[in-house]
Every structure is written in C-alpha cells, then in structure tokens.
Design brief:
Elements lengths: L4 E6 L4 E9 L2 E5 L6 H9 L3 E6 L11 H8 L2 E5 L9 E3 L4 E4 L2 E7 L8 E7 L2 E8 L2 E2 L2 E2 L7 H18 L7 E4 L17 E2 H7 L8 H10 L8 H10 L12 E2 L1 H9 L3 E4 L3 H6 L6 E2 L6 H8 L6 E4 L6 H10 L7 E3 L16 E3 L3 H4 L6 E4 L3 H6 L6 E2 L2 H4 L11 E5 L3 H12 L5 E7 H8 L8
Parallel strand pairs: 3-4, 4-5, 5-6, 10-13, 15-19, 16-17, 16-18, 18-19, 20-24, 21-22, 21-23, 23-24
Antiparallel strand pairs: 1-2, 2-3, 7-8, 8-9, 9-10, 11-12, 13-14
C-alpha cells in the first residue's frame, strides 16, 4: 500500500512524532510527546483511530505521551523491555514482531543513546519500507550517550558505534525516520533535515566516516555540548508512567497581592512575555522565559521542579499552550497566573525594569565601556562572536555568577530572549548594572562594519 506517514515536529524540543496510517481506519504513533493535541488532531482529520503507540527508548528530553494515548485513545503501547513499568504495555525485544494492520513492526536492538534503545523496522508485506531510529541514527549525526550516567557514557558510545554499523547493513534506499533532530539536546549534531536514507547517511554522516570504534567514540564525545539537568529525571517518570492529563489545566488567575504572597512563600514567578514587555516593567524576582517553541526546554532547565510556578503572561498568549509546554517537562500543575485582566504595568510590575539596547549603543553609547557576556551555547559562540565578549552559557549562569566581570555588563544571545532570561537571573542575584542587547552578534557586526571573531 502507499505509505501515508505524517511527521509532527516539535521545533522547540527538536523532535519528530510520527503518525502512520495502518489502513482500515487505524493508526500507529511513534514517540509521541505528552502534548498529543496535534497528533490527535491529525488522526481525527484523517478519520483514524490511534490503535498503537510505540516508543523507541525511555525519553530523557520530554515526558512521553504513550500512556496518555493508551488512556485517552485506547492505544496499545509498544515499548522496549526495561523491567516493570507503571502502566500496561507490550514489551518488545530484539527481533519481536507486531502485526499492525497492513504493516509489521519489527524491533531491532540499537543500544547507545540509552541501554534499552530499539529501532523499529517497518515492513510492508515482504518489503522493508523504512526504519524508525529514535535516538540512534539521525540526520548527519547520532544520539548522545551521556544522558544515563558518567560511568556509562563511553560504554554506550561503543554500543552506539555497533548499533550504527548494524543499521548500515540495511539497503541504501531504506528510509530513516529519526525522533531527535535539529534543536534537540539529545542529538550530537545540528542538521536541519528531519529524515534521511541509509545510503545518504553512509555517504555523508561524519560520524560514520570515522575509521574504527575508537575514532567514532572520540568524535561522538567530542561533539557533545551541555544539556538541561531535567534530562536526568524524566526517564524515571516515563518508566513509572506520568499522570494522564487528558487536558492541561490552564493556570488559575490570581490577584497581584496573592501572587506576591505566593512568591514570599517560595513560589517562582515565570514571566512569559516578550523581552520588550519584561524590560518595560516586571515583578521583581521574576524569571523571564519568553513563550516560544523552546519555552519548555528553558523552563525545565532553569525552574526548580520542587517549587510552585506562577505565570505572568501577555493577554495574547494562550494559557493552555503554556500549561502543555510546562507539562512536557514535568511541571504538571501550575500554581496560577497573574490575572491578565489587569491593565498592563501599573503596581503589578512596580519599578523593576531591564535596559534593552540596540547594537549601535555598544559602539557609541554609554554601554560601549560595558563588559559583554554572551550566553549562547558553546557551538553558537564559536561560529561568530563580538570581539572581547566573555562566554557563559545561560544554563550554567546561576551557578557561575562569581565568574562574571565586575562593573556594568551587557548580556547577549542570538535575538534577545535568552539574554533577557540571563538579565532576570542576574537581577535576582542582586545585580543592578545589566543591559540586554536587542539582537545578536550579527547585528553588532553590521553596526560595527567589521567581522565577528570565530573559532575556539
């Protein structure tokens, strides 16, 4: 039959969920995230019932949606054998086959990204249609192996080498459908494409050009950057089985005084408004994380899962989107939100402000004498940076405040959102001499008329 496979991409987490039409009105979903609204919408549009939900491994970067689909759609869960789970599922091991309507799904053990990792061969009659590779083989890269424990990083890298060699035994024309891709911290690379073929990867994947296992391990481990520490707790939640939400409850509107009281009792205020709105005024002590595709990643990375979260948002931002994004990284219940029915500003935001400046001010304005701190990831910093800028990744900032230069500073990223997050962290730590670059290194280069520095 004609393959009808729909990838549903989460640009923020850098992951693809796959919806496959099995025929006879049934569907398979592979590696769904907890927010199943889009995959459910696509299934309904096509008149399909989600009968099966498969996952390739215990995800570390998001809470899995397989249990959600089992409880709300009646889907049968197919998952790697990892011992007792907290919900009903069909455990799969190497070579196991599951007949799914017109197709057969065959498990292929591909440990590396995680010890239990499976890829799934999709077989149409007697023909191999493709392979779901999860966090094993990716476009131009492979899954990182340092998310389980430091002791297992190298052994898993060696296992990843052997798994990729196994996948390379498939025919060149075999379609490859990875879960992780561009933007995912689970990936060791950053190729923009989401799908590929075995032949293309054999010819172009730099990791597959390594001459032998030792060279592969060195190349893989040498390409790894930092990752959010919430990765270290989500796999266990997925093993137990996350709570079934059905719908993510929008946070309850709260008056300003109650928000301040909750803050005094230990709650975190997360302000999802745009940087310019935050700069104009905000509740002192707030953490600025702009609502955009990567909101969930930064919330999981920077907010404390043991403390309640109160949201401050703009009226045009959807509270349900915020709630689902929070749930994807383990914040199941938000303590509430500042009542957006209040006029913007006013006593709700008091006098706390952050200075948002254009690139020209770094050249001719009073900020020209400020120290510049770039909070992008290391790989971004190497591709082009302002002369003299100091590098300190946003995810590590709160733990490395002592490394900041004395005196006034300008924080910067690529566009301004992460820099405003950094400014809010610094303000919370007592710094009052912080400005935020509205833009990035490329804006500075244009204003200065000179090139960026590159390399390490």
């Amino acid at each position: 039959m004609n393959l009808h496979l729909i990838p549903i991409v989460d640009e923020g987490l850098g992951n693809s969920t796959y919806l496959l039409d099995l025929g006879a009105g049934l569907a398979l979903v592979v590696d769904p995230e907890r927010d199943v609204r889009q995959v459910r919408k696509e299934a309904r549009r096509l008149g399909l019932t989600i009968a099966f939900a498969a996952e390739t491994h215990l995800h570390a970067d998001f809470i899995s949606g397989v249990r959600e689909l089992a409880e709300t759609e009646g889907a049968t869960v197919l998952a790697p054998e990892v011992g007792p789970r907290g919900f009903a599922h069909t455990a799969m091991t190497d070579g196991d086959r599951q007949h799914l309507g017109a197709y057969t799904l065959q498990a292929l053990a591909t440990p590396g990204h995680s010890p239990e990792h499976l890829s799934y061969l999709l077989i149409d009659g007697d023909e191999l249609a493709g392979v779901f590779t999860g966090g094993s083989l990716m476009v131009g890269s492979a899954g990182r192996t340092d998310l389980v424990s430091p002791e297992l990083t190298v052994p898993l890298a060696r296992a990843q080498y052997r798994s990729l060699q196994l996948l390379m035994e498939l025919p060149d024309e075999t379609l490859v459908w990875p879960t992780h891709g561009a933007g995912s911290f689970c990936s060791a690379g950053s190729a923009a494409e989401r799908t590929t073929t075995i032949g293309r990867e054999r010819a172009t994947n730099s990791l597959l050009q390594a001459t032998g296992e030792d060279a592969f391990v060195a190349a893989l481990l040498g390409s790894l950057g930092t990752f959010p520490d919430y990765f270290l707790r989500l796999a266990e939640i997925n093993l137990r089985g996350p709570a079934v939400l059905a719908t993510a409850k929008a946070p309850t509107p709260l008056p300003h005084q109650q928000v301040i009281e909750l803050q005094g009792q230990g709650a975190q205020i997360v302000d999802t408004r745009r940087p310019a709105d935050f700069a104009a005024g905000h509740i002192p002590g707030s953490l600025s994380i702009t609502l955009r595709p990567v909101f969930a990643t930064w919330l999981g990375w920077l907010a404390d899962p043991q403390r309640p979260v109160v949201i401050v948002r703009s009226p045009d931002q959807d509270p349900e989107d915020i709630a689902w994004a929070a749930a994807k990284v383990g914040f199941d219940t938000l303590a509430g939100e500042l009542d957006v029915g209040r006029p913007a500003g006013g006593d709700a935001f008091e006098a706390a402000t952050s200075s948002l400046i254009g690139a020209g001010r770094l050249l001719t304005g009073p900020e020209a004498s400020f120290s510049v701190v770039d909070v992008r990831q290391a790989a971004e910093f190497r591709t082009g940076r302002i002369t003299g800028a100091r590098h300190l990744e946003l995810g590590e900032l709160a733990h490395r405040l002592s490394e900041l230069p004395p005196g006034p500073i300008v924080v910067m990223c690529r566009h301004g959102e992460r820099a405003m997050t950094a400014a809010s962290i610094l303000e919370r730590a007592g710094r009052t001499d912080v400005a935020v670059l509205d833009g990035g290194a490329a804006d500075w280069a244009r204003a200065a008329g000179r090139p960026l520095e590159r390399g390490r």
